[in-house]
Amino acid sequence: xxxxxxxGVGVMSGEIRTGVPRPQDxxxxxxxxSGPVRREEAAWESAELAAQNxxxxxxxxxxxxxxxWMANRYRPEVALACSFGxxxxxxxxxxxxxxxNVGIFYLxxxxxxxxxxxxxxxxxxxxxxxxxxxxxxxxxEAQAAEFGPALWARHPDAxxxxxxxxxxxxxxxxxxxxxxxxxxxxxPTRLHAPFVEWDRQFGLAKANPLxxxxxxxxxxxxxxxAVPYNPLHDCGFPSIGCWPCTRAVQPGEDxxxxxxxxxxxxxxxxxx
Length: 272
What we know:
The protein has helices spanning 43-59, 63-74, 86-98, 114-127, 140-147, 151-154, 156-172, 215-224, and strands at residues 15-17, 78-81, 103-107, 132-135, 177-179, 196-199, 204-207. It is α/β, with parallel strands linked by helices. It has one domain (15-19, 34-234): HUPs (Rossmann fold, 3-Layer(aba) Sandwich), CATH 3.40.50. The chain has a seven-stranded mixed sheet, with helices on both faces. It is globular. The two termini are 25 Å apart.
């Protein structure tokens, strides 16, 4: 199935509530994605992406070149995942300049900070985008009724699976490629993120145009181009997720120390 598209910047619009099935054992304790397995990895496509990544590695990107290559290679079945953090805001601006027909979507966990929604609205006005809203199967009240209150405080992996991973899995089944704002500097788990790769977890091509950027690079781009960004970044939030699982980072702490504080967890599972 292909996502309906119209002309213009950020060409996706509307919303999708994913109908992801409940785990077979009825448990919410597992964070692993469930549902049908996507098409098998195409060896030739994986090889093509690896070869192209070597080209980008030699050139150090640049981010704009990665975006244009992905747009030309996979459009119309390629989309930017936008969480309305600093890096994704920079990518929205970059898309508007270099690949305006690439779609934009976001995972609305229904637990986002109000500042994330406000940033979305500012980006929509500035760039005339209509990002596609992806919703989980259950709203927070229904999740609490089925699995108990504040699941994120007891089984954060399970909560991420239901509110992020499974909805993303369902949406990416309609695409051939996706674009993210992850950077190698963000965490040890992202240290070797390539510019382009075959995403084995979700079974499609993936681009990380900002892989080689530092935080200073991201801030420089946003300020040079007057890009709207999430004001929580000015309040000690270098990484912003859902409000129950995100706090401000204290001086001397790791940039992702504010995510799932108190748990041995630093990733929601979208990027492996």
